Amino acid sequence: MKLVEIYTSPLCGFCHAAKRLLNQKGVEYTEIDVLEAPDRKPEMIQRANGGRTVPQIFIGDTHVGGCDDLYALEQGGKLDALLA
């Protein structure tokens, strides 16, 4: 399974929803809390091609985007293949 990284903030409902989906699928991920580690936010913005909102989700070298994008991959049957 590919490395999954998710930039989050503790008060973000979309972050919780994205993590819930990953947890339901049994996916291990690295969470980077940008409130706890504000020095990581510029890294997130650069990796996300200017995306400033959380969550920002990465699977391997692929920038998935946010929570809605993650759920769209799941509903389209493409998330499992991306994770493999």
Short account of what is shown:
The chain is α+β, with helices and mostly antiparallel strands and 84 residues long. Helix 1 runs parallel beside helix 3. It is globular and about 35 Å long.
Describe this protein's structure.
With 84 residues, this protein is α+β, with helices and mostly antiparallel strands. Helices cover 39% and strands 20% of the residues. The protein is built from four helices and four strands, in the order βαβαββαα. The protein has helices at 13-24, 41-47, 67-75, 79-83, and strands at residues 4-8, 30-33, 56-59, 62-65. Helix 1 runs parallel beside helix 3 (67-75). The protein is globular. The termini are close together.
Topology of this structure?
Elements: E1 4-8, H1 13-24, E2 30-33, H2 41-47, E3 56-59, E4 62-65, H3 67-75, H4 79-83
Parallel strand pairs: 1-2
Antiparallel strand pairs: 1-3, 3-4
Helix pairs in contact: 1-3
Key traits:
globular, 4 helices, 39% helix, 4-stranded mixed sheet, single chain, Glutaredoxin
Count of helices?
4
β-strand amount: 15-25%
Structural domains: how many:
1
Instruction: Label the overall shape.
Output: globular
Gyration radius (Cα, Å) is: 12 Å
Structural class: alpha+beta
Name of the CATH architecture:
3-Layer(aba) Sandwich
CATH class: Alpha Beta
- How many strands appear in the DSSP assignment? 4
CATH topology: Glutaredoxin
User: Alpha-carbon distance between the termini?
Assistant: 5 Å
User: pLDDT below 50 for ≥5 consecutive residues: which ranges?
Assistant: none
- The secondary-structure element order is EHEHEEHH
| Average pLDDT taken over every residue | 97
Identify the strand order in the major beta sheet: 2-1-3-4
